[in-house]
TrEMBL record:
The keyword Oxidoreductase applies. The keyword Protein biosynthesis does not apply. It comes from Asanoa siamensis. Gene3D superfamilies: FAD/NAD(P)-binding domain (3.50.50.60). This is Monooxygenase.
Length: 382
């Protein structure tokens, strides 16, 4: 079988590796001239690292990753700890795989070293029978075409029609701060979410601990284009977090050239395949980053797709099974992420107090996480 994967992000590259392991000949077309240097921090929960381990990639991922000790929620004004979920040995023993933080660029570079990628190859159209049209006029035909081309997917538009992604009213200012510049601050090797009225701040270390990934999310009514490279105004970030715990003010102040990332999403869709063509990752189920599962769900998709293709050489039948195995799971994680958009930004008051009480009661590694981290994507069981 010959396959074309459109998009050389995390989803596309893991798909290519997984398909090659089951004997499929794969080509990857990536629009960027240079593969995957952009981006900042990505969280890889054990449901993703277990799959990376099965593909023989976990050892090299660990070399560029940071293993956080815990996942913390803190209050916005005084930094008070609301809950801490252990993520180190506890996660390893509960779920058989580690929780890791990586720089997206490090992970993409590592994956691209394991599978050939044709860079500077922008797809402009795909037909359901498996013909891929590139911007330079080339036409390539494959038995299977996988659209792993992100939230504004051209492959999705080609097989399902045009529908714009929705601006969520949230904008993230992001940056990577060298670890020595935050050495005086009480920021540990944790995944920390600091929640406050209408805003939140997330930070964790990446790149073997050399860089602190900081994401400051605010609500804005204005529509902004979705881009990974727009630069925001550092004064706006500082002003937005004025009056917060001094640690947050210091982190916001250290973002000297923050990247401004307007957050978009889409509703779950019932089907995302047509004949020889399917979608994967953000192309079919984009989600807000508030469940830290965007990359993980794309990795699960890749694993399941390869298993379905290995089981059946009838491509439409394999794609129908892939969709059936992935639909409810990804819709549930999309829902979790969207729900956190409201939960994280509650104004101080009764609803916030109820949230904080609920969070405190799940202190520790709770079985509530089994559905997410202990999930077997082939059986659908935790
Ligand atoms: C540049 C970039 C930076 C990111 N940085 C972060 C981050 O810091 N933190 C975070 O949580 N998430 C980040 N994300 C999103 C995160 O990577 C995804 O949510 C998650 O990994 C799922 O990935 P995906 O492979 O489905 O899609 P994506 O990661 O969006 O990858 C899609 C790939 O397809 C390529 N592509 C798009 N259109 C075409 C086309 N027409 N022809 C060929 N190739 C095409 C894109 O260039 C990209 O490489 C980033 C995404 C991108 C594209």
């Amino acid at each position: 079988m010959r396959a074309v994967v459109v998009g050389g992000g995390i989803g596309g590259l893991v798909t290519a590796l997984a398909l090659r392991r089951v004997g499929v000949e794969v080509r990857v077309f990536e629009q960027a001239a240079v593969v995957g240097t952009a981006g900042a921090g990505i969280q890889l929960a054990p449901n993703a690292t277990r799959i990376l381990a099965s593909l023989g990639l976990l050892g090299s991922v660990r070399q560029v990753a940071v293993a956080p000790t815990s996942f913390e929620f803190r209050r916005w004004d005084d930094g008070r700890l609301l809950s801490a979920t252990p993520l180190g040995p506890a996660v390893l023993s509960a779920y058989g795989a580690p929780y890791l933080h990586v720089h997206r660029g490090d992970l993409v570079a590592l994956l691209a070293g394991a599978v050939p990628v044709e860079a500077g190859a922008r797809c402009v159209d795909v037909s359901p029978d498996g013909e891929v049209v590139l911007a330079d006029g080339r036409r390539e035909r494959a038995d299977l075409v996988v659209g792993a081309d992100g939230i504004h997917s051209v492959v999705r538009r080609s097989i399902l029609g045009a529908a714009d992604a929705r601006f969520t009213g949230h904008v993230a200012y992001r940056g990577l701060i060298p670890a020595d510049r935050v050495a005086g601050l009480p920021v540990a090797r944790t995944a920390t979410v600091r929640m406050g009225p209408g805003r939140h701040c997330v930070h964790y270390f990446v790149s073997s601990g050399r860089l602190l990934n900081v994401v400051c999310v605010v609500e804005e009514s204005r529509w902004t284009r979705e881009s990974w490279t727009d630069v925001g105004d550092p004064l706006e970030v500082r002003a937005a977090f004025a009056g917060w715990d001094p640690v947050v003010s210091a982190l916001a102040g250290a973002l000297s050239a923050p990247l401004k990332w307007a957050l978009f999403d889409r509703e779950p869709i019932p089907r995302w395949s047509k004949d020889a063509v399917t979608l994967l990752g953000d192309a079919c189920h984009p989600m807000l980053p508030y469940g830290a599962q965007g990359a993980a769900q794309a990795i699960e998709d890749a694993f399941v797709l390869a298993a379905c293709v290995a089981d059946s050489s009838d491509v439409p039948a394999a794609l129908a099974r892939y969709e059936a195995l992935r639909h409810d799971r990804t819709a549930r994680v999309q829902d979790l992420s969207r729900g956190n958009a409201t939960r994280f930004h509650l104004p101080d008051g009764p609803a916030q107090q109820a949230r904080d009480t609920a969070i405190a009661s799940t202190n520790g590694l709770s079985a509530d996480l089994d559905w997410l981290y202990g999930f077997d994507p082939l059986t659908g069981r935790a």
